[in-house]
Amino acid sequence: MESGRGTIIRLTKLTDTSLIVHWMSEGAGLIKTVAKGARRAKSSFAGRLDLFVEADFEWGRSKKGELHHLKEVSVVDYREGLRTSYRDALVAGYFVQLLEMVLELDHPEPEMWDLLRRGLRHLGEAGASRRALFHFESEVARMLGLGKGAHLGILQVYGKLPKTRDHCLELLPQK
Length: 175
What we know:
With 175 residues, the protein is of the alpha+beta class. 37% of the residues lie in helices and 25% in strands.
């Protein structure tokens, strides 16, 4: 059994009663867990599994694949501030998509986890802005060793950026 703190970055329906919960965690990096029975009305996960929620959680590591078994979740922060604005949620989603694009599963990246935490906190408190989006990209590029090229460096190495970037920039006013 393993435990850690993480942020839910994606939820995917697995069966009529179960979910795949994608986490960005401090000690394990990007991981995927199965929450069996999470979609049932009386599930022990009820009200705890939602996008961008930060939580302490326990999981059993799979011996055969990348889908681990989620055992327990204790919410630390629901991040209600992100739910008040479509723009904030969209930019938060872009942050997550960018990290999913550049990071490997089951590989600890504490600096990237901290960057995501700070980015989500900023969006919840101050709202989305072009400056916040560019800063997040710059920090990701710096941590990857791509220098100050930010999105151009990421584009050159990975060949693409998440498609939502253009939509984010359309919705964020230029100053």
